[in-house]
Design brief:
The structure is a homodimer.
Chain A (H helix, E strand, L loop, with lengths): L1 E9 L16 H10 L9 E2 L8 E11 L9 H6 L6 E9 L9 E12 L12 E3 L5 H9 L3 E4 L14 E10 L4 E8 L6 H13 L5 H10 L14 E8 L1
Parallel strand pairs in A: 3-10, 5-6
Antiparallel strand pairs in A: 1-3, 1-4, 2-3, 5-9, 5-10, 7-8, 8-9
Chain lengths: ~250, ~250
């Protein structure tokens, strides 16, 4: 069996998320349907991150195994793009070793969250940013971001009801950039719990609005209690930016 | 009669352009329908630039006269936005003197054209940029832009069949910015002929591809012959960025 790796960009607005769900348009579903047209086998793919409904990707990484695809690996993006909807594009393809798995082999991932501040929603950012009518204190949000660095138990920021072995993750970097019209917060970690980025950003926005103190955020982290953190922020500001492998 | 001025942003993707056309969705049509709901009179509006189907605006300026609107001028954006589709937003409103007319009073306008270069179309720029599969020589395009500066007859770059008194316009500035993923060309002039920006950019892209020399572009300008210029480039990369008044 050969192992393939693809890098996929998508505008998640019109999809029910990455992961296949019966009767709903999903990124995985569209990719598997397109692959099915290229060879005799049904091919199950694995994505590095299971992005939610409305979440976008600039660097989703996908792997799969097959030995009967006849399209050469460097032509795969062209072949797949001709079969995929316009809001999903395969932008890179390569062969990998048999040990490679897009999710399990990932060393770390970077997610970016975009926020637009202004009195009225911006028509060009509606699909791609969270709109804050009120001004945010970006310096305090940057301070807040530092609290999330390092190896920590992020249980308070995981979606309730998710079943994972451990809620400990290592956050390598949190970068707040408020220099441009579109403000961004980037998180790089060895893994993310379900809804974790949107829960962290929801809490950071509350800090930026003066609704929560940094001391409170520290207590929330320590509590490991999801009920104490802020509401999960809207999906449309979230982008899976990059997946790194060693 | 009072004279009102509005600044309007819109994503032009789903519209047949600014100007009212029977049976078609237009920006002017949506704005006039919304205004009609706020007062007893039908209000005809004037826009500073008649943007085409698929063309966007960050700073379209609109004026109209009425004496029976009861909504205070500073509340107009809120009142209109609650009635407008999500892809049209009124972001500013003010009273003007009776002599003011959004198009006639304009001192100059700035249009921006966006280009994305890469082997595959970018899913996030599909509605907002022209995609060039081939790399462009941005230095030569910048040189080309300089040929368009000053008071000149732009007849070769006007849509054929347009009836205007004069095809002479003064171009104050042409700025090429190729520093970021999204490349931009900004044009500031005292006025623009129909399709002029898209014809200028079409010709600049041909220069960037090495299909035309700067000497040829000079000849095209001098010829005043529309048939010599390059094809009109796609509308989705074009933004009316700002309208200036003295």
């Amino acid at each position: 069996m050969k192992t393939y790796c693809l890098i996929v960009q998508y505008d998640g607005t019109d999809y029910a998320g990455f992961q296949v769900q019966p009767g709903q348009p999903t990124i995985q579903g569209e990719l598997e349907t397109a692959l099915q047209k290229l060879g005799p086998n049904f091919i199950r793919i694995a994505g590095a991150g299971r992005t939610d409904a409305g979440v976008h990707s600039e660097g989703q990484t996908v792997s799969f195994r097959d030995d009967q695809l006849t399209v050469p690996v460097d032509r795969l993006p062209y072949a797949l793009n001709s079969l995929l909807p316009r809001d999903i594009r395969v932008v890179e393809s390569r062969m990998e070793s048999n040990q490679f798995h897009a999710r399990i082999s990932a060393k770390d991932k970077t997610y970016r969250y975009q926020i637009y501040e202004g009195p009225f929603p911006n028509v060009f950012y509606q699909r791609y940013a969270y709109w804050s009518k009120e001004s945010l204190d970006w310096e305090r949000m940057s301070e807040c971001g530092k609290l999330f660095l390092g190896k920590q138990d992020f249980a308070a920021f995981a979606a309730s009801g998710s079943s994972v072995k451990t809620t400990v993750r290592t956050m390598y970097d949190v970068q707040v950039d408020a220099e441009h019209v579109l403000k961004t917060i980037r998180f790089t970690a060895d893994g993310f719990l379900y809804n974790m980025v949107r829960n962290l950003v929801g809490t950071m926005v509350d800090v930026g609005l003066g609704r929560r103190s940094l001391r409170e955020v520290e207590s929330i982290l320590e509590s490991r209690d999801r009920r104490l953190a802020s509401a999960t922020i809207a999906p449309q500001g979230l982008f899976l930016e990059r997946v790194n492998y060693s």
